[in-house]
Design a protein that fits this description.
The protein is α+β, with helices and mostly antiparallel strands and 394 residues long. It folds into 4 domains: 88 residues, OB fold (Dihydrolipoamide Acetyltransferase, E2P) (Beta Barrel); 75 residues, Nucleic acid-binding proteins (OB fold (Dihydrolipoamide Acetyltransferase, E2P), Beta Barrel), CATH 2.40.50; 74 residues, Nucleic acid-binding proteins (OB fold (Dihydrolipoamide Acetyltransferase, E2P)), CATH 2.40.50; 106 residues, Nucleic acid-binding proteins (OB fold (Dihydrolipoamide Acetyltransferase, E2P), Beta Barrel), CATH 2.40.50. Helix content is 21%, strand content 35%. The chain has 9 helices and 20 strands. The strands form 4 sheets. The protein has a 5-stranded mixed beta barrel with strand order 1-2-3-5-4. Strands 8-7-6-9-10 form a 5-stranded antiparallel beta sheet. A 5-stranded mixed beta barrel has the order 11-12-13-15-14. Strand 17 and strand 18 form a beta hairpin.
Length: 394
């Protein structure tokens, strides 16, 4: 009698909507009997089993630990009516609430679509990703959309998306997710991780994502780094498109990491052989070369060697013509190809001194250019030597 009273009082504490653990004690085609503790046993009725997918129904075995939902603490026959599927749904809603509050990023496969967006599942709960919350890169071809425009999302079915829950309303059966919010947070996390990991001097692989007049931006997998125009190539470059193109995969050298400002400076040039390392083997004083005028300054003109464009030298204003020159533009123009004579090589400082006037004067071929200048200005530093000391290393 005491045992029956204990069972009665324990079972009386059950309420509709509760989710409790239990153990399967009997399985038949018509019902499943579950021990939910304190000597209480409930029934998962036939109509509940019929609504379950065959694979789930066939997977129920005696001894299984399960969660059940209390549909009715006591029906007209005195039985406790249970539901396995409702317990799963309720548990999935709890998980959705937890993910919403923790702001976690999850991955889910697209299982369907409608006019407004795509459908995913969080367990047994149906979630919806509005078109406005899909990544901006998923541009739909509206011209290919059928009636109602639904087909524009068809290509996403089967694809796995990174998502973040932005609204949970179980009462209205409303679960809204966002790919945009997830990607924004994911990129932020990746950026912070990469900033902490990047080391100056290491080599990374990235993808060119944008070109500007001053350089190329490289995506390193979560953070963008800049390859300045001067670090794109050993050759002089006027625009990044001369070296790289958007979408291209490249290896880059990490020059600087500014963690405080979140900036990363990269270089392509540092991974290329230094053409100045063997310049003294290729060029000697007195040698004639072909050069292209690249730029003009008040003290002279710069020219790159034809066929060896990474090597650029200075034609001092005093070496442009035998007569006085007010400005280099009076003698040469950018893009002009001229014959020049090498009059000085300084490999360690990346400097090459050239002369236009000595190339035109064959009688100077055997003379040392330094002796000629010293004879003209015995007490002072030559204009060429002074100008070279002002030039920034190329």
């Amino acid at each position: 009698m005491a045992e029956m009273l204990e069972r009665y009082l324990s079972c009386q504490r059950l309420e509709h909507g509760q989710i409790v653990p239990g153990t399967v004690v009997h399985v038949s085609p018509n019902e499943v009997l579950v021990d939910i503790g304190a000597k209480c046993e409930g029934i998962v009725p036939e109509r509940e089993l019929e609504r379950m997918p065959p694979a789930e129904r066939d997977g129920i075995h005696v001894g299984d630990e399960v969660l059940v939902y209390i549909v009715n603490p006591e029906d007209t026959n005195g039985n406790i009516i249970l539901s396995l599927s409702r317990a799963q749904v309720a548990r999935d809603w709890r998980e959705a609430r937890r993910l919403f509050e923790s702001e976690e990023i999850i991955e889910r496969k697209v299982v369907g679509y409608n006019r407004g967006g795509v459908i995913v599942h969080l367990g047994k709960v149906r979630g919806f990703v509005p078109g406005s919350q899909l990544a901006s890169t998923r541009v739909a071809d509206r011209s290919a959309a059928g009636p109602g425009g639904e087909e524009r999302w068809a290509a996403l079915v089967g694809e796995t998306l990174k998502l973040k829950i932005i609204e949970v309303d179980q009462q209205r059966n409303r679960l809204i997710l966002s790919e945009r919010a997830a990607l924004r947070d994911w990129h932020k996390a990746q950026r912070e991780r990469l900033l902490s990991e990047l080391t100056e001097g290491e080599v990374r692989r990235g993808r060119v994502i944008n070109l500007a007049d001053f350089g190329a931006f490289i995506d390193l997998g979560g953070i963008d780094g800049l390859v300045h125009l001067s670090e794109l190539s050993q050759k002089r470059v006027t625009h990044p498109r001369e070296v790289v193109e958007i979408g291209q995969e490249v290896e880059v050298y990490v020059l600087r990491v500014d963690r405080e400002r979140g900036r990363v400076a990269l270089s392509l040039k540092r991974l290329q052989p230094d053409p100045w390392a063997s310049v003294e083997e290729r060029y000697q004083e007195g040698q004639l070369v072909e050069g292209v005028i690249t730029r003009l300054t008040k003290w002279g003109a710069f020219a790159s060697i034809v066929g060896d464009e990474a090597i650029e030298g200075l034609i001092h204003i005093s070496e442009l013509d035998v007569g006085p020159v007010v400005h280099p533009r009076d003698v040469v123009q950018p893009g002009q190809v001229v014959t020049l004579r090498v009059i000085g090589v300084d490999a360690p400082r990346h400097r090459l001194a050239l002369s236009l006037k000595q190339a035109a004067q064959g009688e100077f071929m055997g003379q040392d250019w330094q002796e000629v200048l010293a004879a003209e200005q015995p007490e002072a530093e030559s204009p060429l030597s002074a100008a070279l000391s002002e030039v920034v290393e190329q």
